[in-house]
Design a protein that fits this description.
This protein is α+β, with helices and mostly antiparallel strands. 38% of the residues lie in helices and 20% in strands. The strands form 3 sheets. Strands 1, 2, 3, 4, 5, 6, 7, 8 and 9 form a 9-stranded mixed β-sheet that branches. Strands 10-11-16-15 form a 4-stranded antiparallel β-sheet, covered by helices on one side.
């Protein structure tokens, strides 16, 4: 089957079972500063998994664009990709295990026609120290629907527990999670004993491929480290579209599915090498994966830079160029490869086709710049003679460590790998520490102070539009329990007078004690009201809208025409702006600066 076949069959299957098909959220998360990218289908749905009603009801399904930066180093084998589509279905307090597991089995064996004797499943073994029971219910359901007991295995929380933060002990207060039941497809390839004496579903030898995971999200992490039950039991299923498609072809190599066909052929033509040549396959896979991820990032508005999402994008592009060189291609090719993806995905994601010119120009520019970086790095390396400083070449000149190692090996120069490893680990630890500090708190924890800052963020955006002009729009946000941050479109530095005016407006609205109301309405109705919304986002037919003010507005009578601020938003928010000024607190701008051409950033607090 093609990815289009599998995607359509999945969405049709769950639509017939009462699920509303919602659009994919952007890969740039909205109002979630805990992560740089949308990495799963559940991520945009956290408020609803925590109990907030969803505008489209309690049964949802979609195909979600996802990106996992943590998998960059894994790309090169036959199944890891950084960008992928995650097929998902959710029950928000509706059905549970008894319905979910038989449905997934039916979809896999009847819709996708996967042989029943090739399906294995795993369940949660429990954790007595945390009071989390063994998931015998799921195992019994699998047995009843025909999975033999010897193909049902139990694993601990490292394998069969799901939350955005990993295992139960690592979950922060307020984070939802639960046991999961994973489905694996057995390609029946020969076991490689390098990966252990015996083979099993979680073995990395390549015989088994995880194709789906039903998470039974029913727990909430408490401040004392224990768990309480969520108000409603939820189901969160995720199945990798590329992996499911590979299973229908009975080929464990995801890079041989149709999504990569035209891009793979373009690389073969330019390199004069075939994908399945022993020394070429890994390079092909990295280029195919990284260029597809870069295509979606560029189409989503991300641009190469040295920070945040832009840094990840630049890293993908540069890793691709190194592999292009290894295949003997010495001229620009990434824009040509990306063009194949804009055509493959144009029907499902029209925004990619609309931005094809931008994608081409950015890739051409970045490829040219990096080749200059390589040339500069080579000159510096030559100056070093036999005393090659790998760390300096990487951190100062951006010269790839892998390439330095190769050159040293060719010249018979021995590098101090131990010292290099130590320095690189220290460098990465500093980067990680900075990221942890930067994303501390976060809207996802729904703490009281974070929610206050979220509402303040709405008021601030409207105040900026009043002072600087209606062309100002949000271009990013990061809200923690310590402060709020907003990125917005504006072409010049704000004057002290402008900042003072913005502060005055925000504090006035806090003092006016405006009610904050939430209304579910059609997307068209919200757009007619002029509700602020994220640029380029694809919203469902029914949306959640938050309005700030006027004084006499209520949930049943929000009086949008008199509201101070109206925005598409999933929440949560305070119920009245008076809560923002409790304890005599006032809004204050700490810093205003440029982050990119035409983009300014404000950091602010309630103090």
């Amino acid at each position: 089957m093609t990815i289009t076949d599998v995607r359509k069959r999945y969405l049709d299957f769950f639509a017939k079972r009462g699920h509303v098909i919602i659009p994919s959220a952007p890969i740039l998360p909205e109002n979630d500063p805990t992560t740089l990218f949308t990495s799963s289908g559940m991520q945009p749905l956290v408020p609803y998994l925590l109990g907030q009603p969803h505008p489209e009801g309690s049964r949802l399904a979609n195909s979600q664009m996802s990106f996992r930066a943590g998998d960059i180093e894994e790309v090169g084998d036959n199944r890891h990709t950084t960008f992928f589509e995650m097929l998902g279905n959710w029950s928000l307090g509706d059905y549970f295990k008894q319905e979910q597991l038989p449905w997934i089995y039916e979809f896999l064996t009847q819709e996708l026609k996967l042989p029943k004797n090739r399906i294995w499943v795993t369940c949660f073994a429990g954790d007595d120290s945390l009071g989390l029971p063994k998931d015998t219910d799921s195992a019994e359901i699998w047995k009843k629907i025909g999975v033999p007991e010897d193909r049902i295995l139990f694993y601990d929380a490292k394998k069969n527990w799901w939350s955005r933060s990993g295992t139960p002990d690592k979950m922060p207060t307020g984070e939802p999670g639960g046991p999961d039941s994973e489905v694996f497809f057995d390609f029946q390839t020969q076991h490689d004993t390098t990966f252990g004496e015996t083979c099993h579903p979680n073995c990395d030898c390549g015989r088994f491929l995880e194709i789906g995971n039903s998470v039974f999200m029913e727990y909430l992490k408490k401040s004392d480290g224990s768990f309480s039950k969520l108000p409603k039991r939820n189901v969160d299923f995720g199945g990798g579209l590329e992996r499911l498609t590979a299973a229908t072809r009975d080929n464990p190599d995801v890079f041989l599915i149709d999504a990569f066909d035209s891009a793979r052929k373009a690389i073969e033509q330019r390199s004069g090498k075939l994908y399945n040549e022993e020394k070429a396959t890994r390079s092909f896979r990295i280029i195919l994966d990284h260029s597809r991820a870069a295509t979606f990032m560029l189409a989503s508005g991300i641009r190469p830079s040295n920070t945040e999402q832009g840094y990840v994008l630049r890293r993908l592009i540069r890793r691709s160029i190194l592999e292009v060189d290894r295949l003997g291609i010495k001229s620009a090719i990434l824009a040509e490869v990306a063009k194949n993806y804009t055509e493959v995905y144009s029907n499902q994601y029209p925004f990619i086709l609309k931005t094809s010119d931008v994608i081409r120009l950015e890739l051409e520019k970045e490829e040219m710049q990096f080749r200059k970086t390589l040339a500069h790095g080579l000159r510096e390396l030559e100056k070093m003679g036999n005393n090659i400083d790998v760390f300096t070449l990487f951190t100062t000149y951006g010269f790839p460590v892998e390439l330095t190692k190769e050159i040293a090996m060719e010249r018979g120069i021995t590098l101090d790998i131990t010292a290099l490893t130590t320095k690189m680990e220290e460098h990465q630890a500093l980067s990680r520490a900075g990221a942890v500090q930067k994303f501390a708190g976060g809207l996802a924890d729904h703490s009281e102070q974070t929610v206050r800052y979220h509402t303040t963020h709405h008021i601030l955006l409207k105040a900026l539009q009043m002072v600087l002009g209606p062309e100002v729009h949000q271009r990013g946000s990061n809200i923690t329990s310590e402060r709020l941050r907003i990125d917005f479109s504006y072409g010049q530095k704000m004057t002290p007078e402008q900042k003072a005016d913005v502060e005055k407006i925000v504090n006035e609205k806090i003092a006016q004690e405006f009610p904050v109301t939430r209304t579910i309405m059609s997307k068209e109705e919200a757009e007619k009201l002029g509700a602020e919304h994220e640029f380029g986002a694809n919203y469902p037919d029914q949306v959640s809208v938050y309005a700030v003010g006027p004084k006499d507005s209520t949930e049943t009578n929000p009086k949008f025409s008199e509201a101070f601020s109206i925005e598409f938003c999933g929440g949560p928010h305070v119920s009245n702006t008076r809560e923002l000024g409790e304890g005599g607190k006032h809004f204050k701008i700490l810093k205003e600066e440029a982050t990119a051409a035409g983009i300014r950033r404000i950091k602010a607090v309630l103090e």
